[in-house]
Protein backbone atom coordinates (compact mmCIF):
# COMPACT_ATOMS: atom_id res chain seq x y z
CA UNK A 1 0.00 0.00 0.00
CA UNK A 2 1.54 3.31 -1.04
CA UNK A 3 1.16 6.65 0.75
CA UNK A 4 -1.63 7.92 -1.50
CA UNK A 5 -3.72 4.79 -0.88
CA UNK A 6 -3.03 5.04 2.85
CA UNK A 7 -4.04 8.72 2.85
CA UNK A 8 -7.23 7.95 0.94
CA UNK A 9 -8.09 5.16 3.39
CA UNK A 10 -7.43 7.53 6.33
CA UNK A 11 -9.69 10.23 4.87
CA UNK A 12 -12.44 7.70 4.14
CA UNK A 13 -12.10 6.28 7.66
CA UNK A 14 -12.43 9.75 9.18
CA UNK A 15 -15.45 10.46 7.01
CA UNK A 16 -17.09 7.13 7.90
CA UNK A 17 -16.38 7.73 11.58
CA UNK A 18 -18.09 11.12 11.45
CA UNK A 19 -20.94 9.69 9.40
CA UNK A 20 -21.44 7.21 12.25
CA UNK A 21 -21.47 10.06 14.75
CA UNK A 22 -23.93 11.89 12.53
CA UNK A 23 -26.23 8.87 12.47
CA UNK A 24 -26.25 8.87 16.27
CA UNK A 25 -27.09 12.59 16.27
CA UNK A 26 -29.91 11.98 13.79
CA UNK A 27 -31.34 9.18 15.92
CA UNK A 28 -31.30 11.30 19.08
CA UNK A 29 -32.65 14.48 17.48
CA UNK A 30 -34.95 13.03 14.86
CA UNK A 31 -38.08 14.73 16.22
CA UNK A 32 -36.40 18.15 16.15
CA UNK A 33 -35.21 17.97 12.54
CA UNK A 34 -37.05 18.59 9.33
CA UNK A 35 -36.56 16.08 6.59
CA UNK A 36 -35.69 17.26 3.10
CA UNK A 37 -35.46 15.23 -0.05
CA UNK A 38 -31.74 15.00 -0.74
CA UNK A 39 -32.13 16.59 -4.18
CA UNK A 40 -33.83 19.67 -2.66
CA UNK A 41 -31.07 20.01 -0.06
CA UNK A 42 -28.29 19.65 -2.64
CA UNK A 43 -30.00 22.04 -5.07
CA UNK A 44 -30.11 24.68 -2.31
CA UNK A 45 -26.44 24.09 -1.47
CA UNK A 46 -25.32 24.33 -5.11
CA UNK A 47 -27.53 27.37 -5.76
CA UNK A 48 -26.02 29.11 -2.74
CA UNK A 49 -22.45 28.20 -3.70
CA UNK A 50 -23.04 29.58 -7.20
CA UNK A 51 -24.00 32.95 -5.66
CA UNK A 52 -21.00 33.13 -3.32
CA UNK A 53 -17.79 35.01 -3.95
CA UNK A 54 -14.46 33.36 -3.16
CA UNK A 55 -14.29 34.63 0.41
CA UNK A 56 -17.84 33.54 1.19
CA UNK A 57 -17.11 30.10 -0.25
CA UNK A 58 -14.01 29.78 1.93
CA UNK A 59 -16.16 30.61 4.97
CA UNK A 60 -18.73 28.00 3.91
CA UNK A 61 -16.08 25.31 3.38
CA UNK A 62 -14.67 26.07 6.82
CA UNK A 63 -18.18 25.70 8.25
CA UNK A 64 -18.66 22.34 6.50
CA UNK A 65 -15.37 21.00 7.86
CA UNK A 66 -16.39 22.10 11.35
CA UNK A 67 -19.79 20.43 10.90
CA UNK A 68 -17.87 17.26 10.00
CA UNK A 69 -16.03 17.51 13.31
CA UNK A 70 -12.70 18.97 12.22
CA UNK A 71 -10.93 21.80 13.96
CA UNK A 72 -10.51 24.31 11.13
CA UNK A 73 -8.68 27.61 11.14
CA UNK A 74 -8.71 30.10 8.27
CA UNK A 75 -5.53 31.75 7.13
CA UNK A 76 -5.49 35.47 6.26
CA UNK A 77 -7.57 36.30 3.17
CA UNK A 78 -4.51 37.70 1.38
CA UNK A 79 -0.95 36.41 1.30
CA UNK A 80 -2.09 33.08 2.67
CA UNK A 81 0.91 31.20 1.30
CA UNK A 82 -1.17 28.93 -0.91
CA UNK A 83 -3.49 27.60 1.78
CA UNK A 84 -6.86 28.85 2.96
CA UNK A 85 -7.59 26.49 5.86
CA UNK A 86 -5.52 24.54 8.33
CA UNK A 87 -7.30 21.44 9.59
CA UNK A 88 -6.15 19.76 12.77
CA UNK A 89 -6.56 16.00 12.81
CA UNK A 90 -5.35 13.30 15.16
CA UNK A 91 -2.57 12.67 12.63
CA UNK A 92 -1.43 16.30 12.51
CA UNK A 93 -2.20 19.23 10.27
CA UNK A 94 -3.73 19.24 6.82
CA UNK A 95 -3.62 22.25 4.50
CA UNK A 96 -6.68 23.07 2.38
CA UNK A 97 -6.70 25.40 -0.62
CA UNK A 98 -10.13 26.55 -1.84
CA UNK A 99 -11.02 28.01 -5.23
CA UNK A 100 -14.51 29.23 -6.13
CA UNK A 101 -14.23 29.02 -9.92
CA UNK A 102 -16.66 28.87 -12.83
CA UNK A 103 -17.02 25.31 -14.11
CA UNK A 104 -15.01 26.16 -17.23
CA UNK A 105 -12.07 27.59 -15.23
CA UNK A 106 -10.07 24.51 -14.26
CA UNK A 107 -7.42 24.49 -11.54
CA UNK A 108 -3.95 24.31 -13.08
CA UNK A 109 -0.73 22.61 -12.01
CA UNK A 110 0.94 25.82 -10.71
CA UNK A 111 -1.86 26.27 -8.16
CA UNK A 112 -1.51 22.66 -7.00
CA UNK A 113 2.27 23.13 -6.80
CA UNK A 114 1.80 26.24 -4.66
CA UNK A 115 -0.21 24.23 -2.11
CA UNK A 116 2.34 21.41 -2.18
CA UNK A 117 5.19 23.91 -1.74
CA UNK A 118 3.46 25.53 1.21
CA UNK A 119 3.00 22.15 2.86
CA UNK A 120 6.59 21.05 2.24
CA UNK A 121 8.04 24.31 3.57
CA UNK A 122 5.96 23.96 6.76
CA UNK A 123 6.55 20.23 7.24
CA UNK A 124 2.90 19.32 6.58
CA UNK A 125 2.45 16.12 4.59
CA UNK A 126 -1.30 16.14 3.87
CA UNK A 127 -3.25 18.54 1.68
CA UNK A 128 -6.63 18.90 0.10
CA UNK A 129 -7.42 21.15 -2.85
CA UNK A 130 -11.13 21.94 -3.15
CA UNK A 131 -12.68 23.71 -6.12
CA UNK A 132 -16.12 24.32 -7.56
CA UNK A 133 -14.73 23.47 -10.99
CA UNK A 134 -12.28 20.72 -11.90
CA UNK A 135 -8.61 20.12 -12.61
CA UNK A 136 -6.46 20.14 -15.71
CA UNK A 137 -4.66 16.91 -16.59
CA UNK A 138 -1.37 18.57 -15.61
CA UNK A 139 -2.79 19.45 -12.19
CA UNK A 140 -3.92 15.86 -11.68
CA UNK A 141 -0.52 14.53 -12.79
CA UNK A 142 1.23 16.95 -10.44
CA UNK A 143 -0.85 15.74 -7.50
CA UNK A 144 -0.29 12.09 -8.37
CA UNK A 145 3.50 12.54 -8.58
CA UNK A 146 3.77 14.57 -5.39
CA UNK A 147 5.48 13.15 -2.33
CA UNK A 148 2.93 15.07 -0.28
CA UNK A 149 -0.39 13.27 0.14
CA UNK A 150 -2.80 15.53 -1.71
CA UNK A 151 -6.45 14.94 -2.48
CA UNK A 152 -8.17 16.88 -5.27
CA UNK A 153 -11.86 17.54 -4.60
CA UNK A 154 -14.27 19.02 -7.14
CA UNK A 155 -17.84 20.26 -6.68
CA UNK A 156 -19.19 16.69 -6.65
CA UNK A 157 -16.83 15.76 -3.82
CA UNK A 158 -17.83 18.89 -1.95
CA UNK A 159 -21.51 18.01 -2.37
CA UNK A 160 -20.71 14.58 -0.88
CA UNK A 161 -19.15 16.36 2.10
CA UNK A 162 -22.30 18.46 2.52
CA UNK A 163 -24.43 15.29 2.48
CA UNK A 164 -22.56 14.13 5.59
CA UNK A 165 -23.65 17.22 7.52
CA UNK A 166 -26.91 17.97 9.27
CA UNK A 167 -29.14 19.49 6.57
CA UNK A 168 -30.91 21.83 9.00
CA UNK A 169 -27.62 23.28 10.22
CA UNK A 170 -26.30 23.78 6.69
CA UNK A 171 -29.55 25.31 5.45
CA UNK A 172 -29.63 27.57 8.51
CA UNK A 173 -26.06 28.69 7.75
CA UNK A 174 -27.08 29.40 4.15
CA UNK A 175 -30.07 31.47 5.29
CA UNK A 176 -32.87 29.10 4.28
CA UNK A 177 -33.91 28.42 7.89
CA UNK A 178 -34.05 30.56 11.01
What does this structure look like?
With about 180 residues, the chain is an alpha/beta fold. The chain has one domain (about 5-30, about 55-175): Trna Endonuclease, Chain: A, domain 1. The chain is about 55% helix and about 15% strand. The protein has 7 helices and 5 strands; from the N terminus they run αααβββαβαβαα. The chain has helices spanning about 5-30, 40-50, 55-65, 110-120, 135-145, 155-165, 165-175, and strands at about 70-75, 85-90, 90-100, 125-130, 150-155. Strands 1-2-3-4-5 form a 5-stranded mixed sheet, with helices on both faces. The radius of gyration is 16 Å and the shape is globular. It starts with a helix and ends in a 5-residue tail after the last helix. Mean pLDDT is about 85; it is low at about 25-30.
Structure at a glance:
The protein has 178 residues and is an alpha/beta fold. The protein has helices at residues 3-29, 38-51, 54-67, 109-122, 137-145, 155-163, 167-173; strands at 71-74, 85-89, 92-99, 126-131, 149-153.
- Total strand count, please? 5
Whole-number count of domains:
1
Secondary-structure element series: HHHEEEHEHEHH
Helical coverage, percent range = 40-55%
User: Can you list the strand order of the major beta sheet?
Assistant: 1-2-3-4-5
Mean pLDDT: 87
Q: Give the overall shape.
A: globular
C-alpha end-to-end distance? 47 Å
Number of helices: 7
Look up the CATH topology: Trna Endonuclease, Chain: A, domain 1
Beta-strand residue fraction: 15-25%
Please state the CA-atom Rg, rounded to the nearest Å.
Answer: 16 Å
- List the quaternary state of the chains: single chain
CATH class: Alpha Beta
Architecture, according to CATH?
A: 3-Layer(aba) Sandwich
Low-confidence runs: 26-32
**Largest beta-sheet details:** 5 strands, mixed
Structural class: alpha/beta
Amino acid sequence: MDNKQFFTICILSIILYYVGLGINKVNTKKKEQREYPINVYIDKVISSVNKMNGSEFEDFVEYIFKEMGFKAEQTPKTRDGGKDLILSTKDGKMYVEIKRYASSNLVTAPLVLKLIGSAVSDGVNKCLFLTTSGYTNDAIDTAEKSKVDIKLVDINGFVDMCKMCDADNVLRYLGYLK
